[in-house]
Amino acid sequence: MKNLPYIDIIIPNYNKGNYLKECLDSVLNQTYKNWRAYLIDDFSNDNSEEILKTYLAEDKINITFLNQNFGPSYCRNLGIKNSKSEYIAFLDSDDFWP
Asked: Which of 21, 24, 43, 49 could form a disulfide with 69 if both were Cys (CB 3.0 to 4.6 A apart)?
């Protein structure tokens, strides 16, 4: 898989703690392994931070915690800015990939 392109997955999150584990686990369980995820937490005030901290050791998942709420467009654009890949996919934090 070394010659296959990387796909960066942009995941904005705001107060979707009830869905985060299913969302991130669905990405981790994909058969295509050349990916990096950029999850931007938009100053959530639910249990999102607690759940996201369990994924900090995952080297393929980059988590950014914002200290102010900016909205999903800002989060997506920040993810694009941080992306290093030619290919980008978007996934909402209350969705999952089968």
From this structure: 43
pLDDT digits (tens, 9 = 90+) for 13-60: 999 999 999 999 999 999 999 999 999 999 999 999 999 999 999 999
Backbone angles phi, psi at 8, to 5 degrees: -95, 130
Integer Cα distance of 72 and 40 in angstroms = 9
Place of tokens 């080297």: 59
Distance between CA atoms of residues 79 and 9, nearest Å: 8
38/90 Cα distance (integer angstroms): 10
Q: Do 88 and 8 meet the contact criterion of CB atoms below 8 Å apart?
A: yes
Residue among 4, 10, 24 nearest 80 (CA): 10
